[in-house]
Every structure is written in structure tokens, then in C-alpha cells.
Amino acid sequence: MQLQTDQIQVSLAVKTALSNGMVLLVNTEKRRLAVSLKDGSFQVSMMTSAVSGLSEAYLLDSPHALNDLSWHQVIIDCDQDECYASIDGAQTSVIKTVVAGYWAATENRGIYIGGGGGLTGSHDEAMTNFRGCIANLTLNKRDLLSEVNYSAEATSTK
After folding, report:
1. DSSP 63-109
2. Span 42-88, pLDDT tens digits
3. Tell me, what DSSP letter sits at residue 126?
4. Structure confidence at residue 104 (pLDDT)
């Protein structure tokens, strides 16, 4: 899936009993948006690269452990100027983005569901693969789980 846009909207439902793991990673040339679980709490963060180096901002760090086997709704909405994030309709946060420009996923970058694709960075502890359930995952109103399922079916051998 190619991604070339100045706005990114992500919505997903998640449930797990485990404490750590990368739920979703959108990795582009200048930006990295991560939804991860660390010590039972959801974190939504964005890393940007600028001339001055890497900059990371936490959009959301849930104050309560959410690895309770209940469904939790995560919503993220970023444009060129700011990002908004919420979990279960509360704990909202808005930050100004550091780098203006497009979210552009290319062949050596991409969208990772349930892991970090072998990437490293400040999320190293959370880069372990996520184990739990993900449902209703949309990126810019596209149903990613249906696309992943279709892609897997198209490449399987019988």
C-alpha cells in the first residue's frame, strides 16, 4: 500500500493481556507514528526528523493499565500542523508537529501491524511483536485488515 498524503487518520480497537508490544507503526521518510503498549499502558508517539536531528513527542500516554482483555478504541488524527489522539474517547492530546510535509510510505518504509518490521529506535523496548487482538483498523478510512487478509490470500499456496 502506497501512502502519500498530508493528513493521516487512524482508528483501531485493541485488546490484550500482555504488557508490551508494537501495535501499529506508520514509518515514513520524515515521520514515524507509533501505537505501542508499554508496561500495560498505551502510548501514541510521533518521531520526526529535521535538520536539527530526531525529535519525539508523546501524543498520548495512558495513565492506567489497559492490558485488561477489554476492547479499547484508539483514534489518531494528524495533519501538517498538529496531531490529536484519544483512547476510549478520553485522555485527548494535541501537539504541534515539528516537520511539515507529507506522510509518504515508500518501499523501504511502510505500515506495520502488530510489530515493527525489524526497525529499531527509541521504541526498542516496545518493538517486540504485539500479541492480542486488533479490529476495525482503518487508515484514512481504508480498512487495512481487509487489505492485509486479501493480500495474504492472494499469496498463499494451496
Report:
1. SS---SSS-EEEEEEE-SSEEEEEETTEEEEEEE-SS-S-EEE-TTS
2. 888 877 766 556 666 777 788 888 899 999 999 988 877 777 888 88
3. G
4. 46
Which residue's entry shows cell 484514512? 140
Q: What is the CA radius of gyration of the chain?
A: 15
Report pLDDT for 11. 93
Query: Topology of domain 3-155, per CATH?
Result: Jelly Rolls (2.60.120)
* pTM of the model as a whole: 0.73
Q: Which has the closest alpha carbon to 45: 108, 109, 95? A: 95
Q: Where are the domains of the chain?
A: 3-155
Q: Distance (Å, rounded) from C-alpha 31 to C-alpha 51?
A: 13
- DSSP lists the bridge partners of residue 11 as 75, 138
Length of the chain: 158
